Amino acid sequence: RRVHGGASSATTPFARMSTLSQQLKKLAQSPAAAKHQLNTSKKPSLLFNSAEAAKLDLDTVREISLNGLSELAQLDGSFVLYENSLFSISSVHADEREIQTKEFNDRLNQMVEEFLELLSPHFLTSGALKSLEYLVRRYSIHIYNSLALLGCILPYHHTLTFARVLQIIRLPTEGMWNFLIPSKKNVSVLHRETLVTACVSNQALLEFILRLCTSGSSFHPSRMSFFLAVATESLSLAQEKGNLEETLRTTLPFLLPGLEAQNGGPLRSAALMVVGHVCCLCELSAKIKAALASSLAQALVRTNDPIETQHILSALSIVLLTQYPLNSTPPPPLTCLRNHMEHVVTALLNMPITAATTSALSHLLAHVLCV
């Protein structure tokens, strides 16, 4: 039956076939190919401007990054392991990650995160940006691994290298990262004051940074310095803003593991300094100051390093001096020191004598001896 009508008569079978054909072509086109069509004019780069980056194929970018990886391997041999995985020749021709399986992308994310953690201590070296160039171009880590990449570069927020990488990162949608927008837009360094203010305003950000610095198997001095600066400055600002209790609750869970670490090292040293800072800011609750005294006393008993022993003694003395008046009941954890007095006294004799240390250590001995 023929239906007459002005508009419908224009839709011929051939027109419908042509439309269907176009739709099928679009459906057949992979998401990766569609993305490629949209982005051929501008390729993200850490080393080149947009015009230069557009002229470089993936093989060339890989060669540049392999050169950077070689430089990094001279600093840490662990980087060699990634030559045949993230930077393998087969990765150049592999499918885009947008159409890979969840299992593939989970493994890829894990490798990328491990690489970025390994890279962070060497971020300011010449090989760092070279190695990142391929990861950005090939795996779009500035989009799909933005949190891990931010974690890698945040300790260097005061440098232009940080600003260069931040410029291409797609910031997570969580509002806690909005403080980075001006630096990203202007390709400028991020001042510590801005970062600390953001940490106090958003405890999730502070927790992210403290976890970033205290997780993993190696605690590089750059990360420990960053941990110490952010923790102490956030606590000081929080006290000014009347937000110290909340900030202390966020910080404390990252201090105790550092104090109790079996091997001590940079993490314990940073945690000891934060403890001393906290105790000088305010009077702590009975539960918190007892937990700190316990962790310090146990650490003192376990360590055999004379320098570390002195640092622990100094921190414990500050806890007692600021939190436990001489006429107060000493914390129960100090009982463990009665059986290690020789160790304690030897450490005390080796410490430099100043008015401050004499007062603090006298306080410590008074509490220990009356336990």
Q: Which structural traits does this protein have?
A:
single chain, 371 residues, mainly alpha, disordered N terminus
What share of the residues does DSSP label as strand, in percent? under 5%
Sketch the major β-sheet: none
Distance between the termini: 105 Å
Query: Percent of residues in helical segments?
Result: 55-70%
Q: Structural class given helices, strands, pairing? A: mainly alpha
Determine Rg (CA atoms, Å).
Answer: 29 Å
Order of helices and strands: HHHHHHHHHHHHHHHHHHHH
Overall geometry = elongated
Could you give the count of β-strands?
Answer: 0
Descriptive overview:
The protein is elongated, with a radius of gyration of 29 Å. Residues 1-41 have low confidence and may be disordered. The chain starts with 12 loop residues before the first helix and ends with a helix. The longest helix is centred in the middle third of the chain and has 21 residues, at 221-241. With 371 residues, it is mainly alpha-helical. 66% of the residues lie in helices and 0% in strands. Helix 4 (58-73) runs antiparallel to helix 7 (126-139), helix 16 runs parallel beside helix 18 (306-323) and helix 18 (306-323) crosses helix 20. The protein has helices at 13-28, 31-39, 50-55, 58-73, 89-93, 102-119, 126-139, 141-144, 146-153, 160-166, 181-186, 192-201, 203-214, 221-241, 244-260, 266-281, 286-302, 306-323, 341-349, 355-369. 33% of the residues are buried.
